[in-house]
Amino acid sequence: MEALRALEPSDGLPPPVPVITLDAIVAEHGAFVWRTLRRLGVGEAHVEDVAQEVLLVVHRRLADYDARSGMRAWLYGICAKKGSEHRRRAWLRRERPVADAPETSTEPEQAAVLERREAVARLEAILADLDPRKRDVFVLFELEEMSLAEVAAAVGCPLQTAYSRLQSARALVQASIARLHAREGES
Amino acid sequence: MKPIEEPVRWLDPRSEAPDRLRRVLAEGRDALGPTPEQMASLGASMAGATAAATGSGAGAGAAKAASIAATHAGQGLTKAAAVKLVAILAIGGAGGGIGWAVVHSSGPSPAPQELHASSGPGPVATTASVPPVAPPREDTTRAPAASGPAESIPVTNAPAPSAPAASEQAAREQATTTATTTGAPPRAEPTGALAGPAPAPTEAPPLEAPSPAAAPPVAESELALLDRARSRLPADPSDALRALDEHRARYPHGTFVQEREVLAIEALVQLGRRPEAEARAAAFAAQFPGSAHRRRIAVLLGGDGG
After folding, report:
1. Is there a contact between A113 and B148 if contact means CB atoms under 8 Å apart?
2. Is the Cβ pair A98, B49 closer than 8 Å?
């Protein structure tokens, strides 16, 4: 059935050439790469550089991409590798994130910066109890909106395992948000 | 093997997750991601970087990379060079936060267009000359490759409009319509460019198709609206105000109510509508007496107390 459809060159028009360009990947998955690197511990000051490294690898290896596991699963693997390389380098250099923004920032924008940091901190707080494996599954499924199958491919575990990690991560997250709320309620 | 039912994502409003939790998730995700300016800068610098990297980029993709890069070198480099500067500034200025203040100060950076530009005209030429992925597996993929796009056309033609603003709008609308018609709502983002025509091996479509199953990103559009307002504010405060009014209508109890009010007050001040600005400032003070934004509001109104 699919093969039949495939043989019909949609009403005389030449069929679109299936192409993945780096541009398209950047446009579509750049934010995913960025967030993934941030979550993997790449600081804001370096994330664009590391994202570029990731995308260069993508660019070089586009031919190796196996669509069966999904683009994001593939990108995630590259991010994980580059992210850990970066952390190792940063550790060797004993780098610390740059703290001071230049004075050109104006106040409302700084407020936005602060808000973003707070949002990240809130998210961190509710993910704090998750071990890395559960956290990965939780984040990829809940935040990155990957399917469970994609998540399983990305983290390299069976689907059933991804499912149970998600369930237990959810329970932990719910517990920690309940605790946070209880604490807020007291004050 | 018993099939595993895909759980309803917590970001999906139909899920059991409480609103506050959903908000924390959505906001955290957005805050971790790049700003539109950062995205534009990344896209632009990639155009240049691939050209530079090709020299050292050995391996299977080198030949393709070369031709892609060649295309980019012609079309992208000038822009890339210019934007790279912005990128450097942005990185320098990021400092653990975001760099867009710097980006703005170095000139109007029409992020979405930039982004669009780098993914628009560029790949057209590239597309014609290099099909980077398809050829190696042509033998196994002919049929499925074509079936991929065929399957995803109904899903993707709505969000296809490439101008980011339009596609965001379309995605939002589409998300609401499709959510009701299918069990697994397609992702709100335009997936067409990739997921559809991906040179899919045989089993790919079933994986690719349900994968974008996603709730409409809940806070993303709220944040996007505010980002738009914020970026228009310097040049066109009334346009910014329109975006803020839209925000007020759509997210009366949104996450960024305070931020919106501060921006609105700033816009009103810039437009010389001072009484309105003051009224909103008073309402703000009443509603959020402990807010850290009150100092900023006081500064905006040129007063000396908040």
Report:
1. no
2. no
Chosen from A4, A5, A19, A170 to mutate, greatest number of chain B CBs within 10 A? A19
Candidates B171, B167, A120, B255; CA nearest to B247 is B255
Cα–Cα distance for residue pair B137/B135, rounded to 1 Å: 5
Instruction: Specify the DSSP class assigned to residue B16.
Output: S
Is the pLDDT assigned to residue B70 strictly greater than 50?
no
R_g of chain B computed on alpha carbons: 23
pTM: 0.46
Question: Cα(A148)–Cα(A165) distance, rounded to whole angstroms?
Answer: 11
* pLDDT tens for each residue of B112-166: 333 333 333 333 333 333 334 433 343 433 333 333 333 333 333 333 334 444 4
pLDDT at residue A50, rounded to an integer? 93
d(CA A64, CA A120): 34
Q: Which two tokens stand for residue B289?
A: 């007496």
Q: What is the ipTM of this complex?
A: 0.78
Q: State whether residue A11 sits within 8 Å of chain B by CB.
A: no
Q: Measure the CA–CA gap between B77 and B49, rounded to whole angstroms.
A: 9
